[in-house]
Recover the amino acids of this structure.
């Protein structure tokens, strides 16, 4: 949402959006210092919740240095050191989106440090899986790293950007699966609903990508419309669009169930 306009907030509220959940994200360019992340975390924990509240929307966030920028382990360590101070903010649900981009050794090292931070502080985890040809391999690697840490409970982790070839390994290992809806790349609404039809609606949600690139903040409401067109009943749509995200995020004491759902 930090790169979105107030018109987007207005449209989201009118389409039935009840809360915003915004992960720390790649800004579209690499930040040059930990100070850049400090300012970004201030934006996510102070400024953006204020902006969302002007539209009556609760705003939640996640903190991390994303995998794309974590190739620089020195920078990543500096950023990791400032995260605990921001974890005290009332809108922080956990650590994310962490994960892998190119599945490199440095990315794995920084991923493990984030997992440790989450475990020590009893935080939920939001995971980014690679979009490249290495998606399947990267997802497997991430699941194995999470499972190797006995402090981590799979039901407290959501593995985002699942697609047809990665969703079952995520669900089979007891994790939550997130389907990020994009107009072209990643997962379209239609593909997401096909996945639900094959794998069911337990421990799975969909999210609208609202970033600086070509993305559609109303993707979830549009998918809800498509579910109805396919004959899904109201409780099915409610389960996927509202109740599942509520169930996952309610594992954090910071999350309050929105009044409207
Ligand atoms: Zn991501």
């Amino acid at each position: 949402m930090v790169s979105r306009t107030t018109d987007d907030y207005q449209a989201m509220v009118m389409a039935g959006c009840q809360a915003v959940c915004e992960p720390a994200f790649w800004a579209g360019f690499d930040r040059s210092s930990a100070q850049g992340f400090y300012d970004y975390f201030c934006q996510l924990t102070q400024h953006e919740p204020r902006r969302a509240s002007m539209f009556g929307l609760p705003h939640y966030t996640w903190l991390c240095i994303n995998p794309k920028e974590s190739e620089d382990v020195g920078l990543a360590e500096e950023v990791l050191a400032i995260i605990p101070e921001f974890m005290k903010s009332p809108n922080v649900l956990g650590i994310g989106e962490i994960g892998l981009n190119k599945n490199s050794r440095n990315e794995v090292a920084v991923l493990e440090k984030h997992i440790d931070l989450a475990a020590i502080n009893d935080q939920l985890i939001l995971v980014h899986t690679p979009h490249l040809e290495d998606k399947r391999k990267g997802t497997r690697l991430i699941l194995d790293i999470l499972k190797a840490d006995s402090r981590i409970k799979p039901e407290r982790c959501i593995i985002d950007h699942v697609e047809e070839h990665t969703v079952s390994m995520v669900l089979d290992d007891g994790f939550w699966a997130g389907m990020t809806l994009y107009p072209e790349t990643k997962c379209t609404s239609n593909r997401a609903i096909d996945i639900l039809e094959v794998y069911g609606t337990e421990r799975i949600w969909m999210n609208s990508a609202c970033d600086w690139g070509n993305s559609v903040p109303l993707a979830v409401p549009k998918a809800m419309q498509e579910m109805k067109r396919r004959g899904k009943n109201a409780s099915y749509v409610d389960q996927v669009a509202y109740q599942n995200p509520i169930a996952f995020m309610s594992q954090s004491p910071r999350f309050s169930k929105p009044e409207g759902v």
